[in-house]
Amino acid sequence: MDNVTRIGVSIEPELLDEFDELIIRKGYSSRSEALRDLVRDSLAEQDWKNPEQYMVGTITIIYDHNTGNISERLMQLQHESNNHISTSIHVHLDHDRCMEILLVSGALRELKELADQISSVRGVLRGRLTMASPTTAHIHHVGHRHTV
Ligand code: NI
Question: 3.30.70.1150, 3.40.1190.10, 3.40.47.10, 3.40.30.10: which CATH number matches 54-134?
């Protein structure tokens, strides 16, 4: 690997044993690789705690298009947030259900608000927001489940 800094880490033997077990379970090829992943994860977690962090992602919803005026409501919400939605994909899953995937970007807070708004429309069966910070490139899932 190019351009790496080697560091020495002091760690209790019991903790190291547990870490080694985790490394085997997750299939890492080395302690260094596992440690790098952990560091990236905790850095990314910091991003996800910052409501103003710029994120890119997707909002995926599954809904029943027969419910009330759901199609117009979803369309209206998307037009109101057109500055955060770059494009969308609509798939007709079966006779009643549709899946829509919105490609979104903006402040973490805004994307969460938008996902909540869209997921809470009556008739939306499942809503999921997936975000990645372009700087740390780790993916974060925020799921919502609704009963019909
Ligand atoms: Ni459809």
Answer: 3.30.70.1150
> For the chain, which residues make up each domain, given as ranges?
13-47, 54-134
Prediction pTM value = 0.70
- Pick from 123, 142, 108: which is nearest to 77 by CA? 123
Instruction: Give distance in angstroms: CA of 73 to centre of ligand 1.
Output: 14
CA of 67 to the centre of ligand 1 (A): 12
Tens of pLDDT, residues 96-133: 999 999 999 999 999 999 999 999 999 999 999 999 88
- Ligand 1 (ion): residues with CB under 5 Å are 92, 98
In the reported structure, the alpha carbon of residue 38 is separated from the centroid of ligand 1 by a whole-number distance in angstroms of 40
